[in-house]
Amino acid sequence: MSDPIIRAMLEEQAASLRASAAQFDMNRAAALASAQDLAVQAGGARAQAEKIEASLAAYDQAFPPPPADEADAEPGGAE
Question: Are 64 and 58 in contact (CB under 8 A)?
């Protein structure tokens, strides 16, 4: 003979665990979507960094830095 109180407690626990599992599934789906969004953002940031680095390389070619001895000299010619 089964005890109705124990049965009710077990049914309530099972329902609670099913609800928890559903919440975990929703959290997992949200985390995956967030990870995909972050991957896209990271890719965009890398692409932007590559463009900036290419611009810096072009700038350095167009305007090369002065030789080291000129760069160390005091402004105005006083040494």
Answer: no
Amino acid letter for position 71: A
CB environment 48-65: b (16+ within 10 A), e (fewer): eeeeeeeeeeeeeeeeee
Whether residue 46 contacts residue 39, with contact meaning beta carbons closer than 8 Å, is answered with no
Residue 71 lies in a domain: no
Q: Measured between alpha carbons, how far is 15 from 25 in angstroms, rounded to an integer?
A: 15
Residue type, 25: D
Q: How many domains does the chain have?
A: 1
Q: How many residues does the chain have?
A: 79
Residue 49 domain flag: yes
pTM over 0.85: no
Residue 21 lies in domain: 4-64
Could you tell me if residue 26 is inside a domain? yes
Dump pLDDT digits (tens) for 47-79.
Answer: 999 999 999 999 999 999 888 876 666 666 554
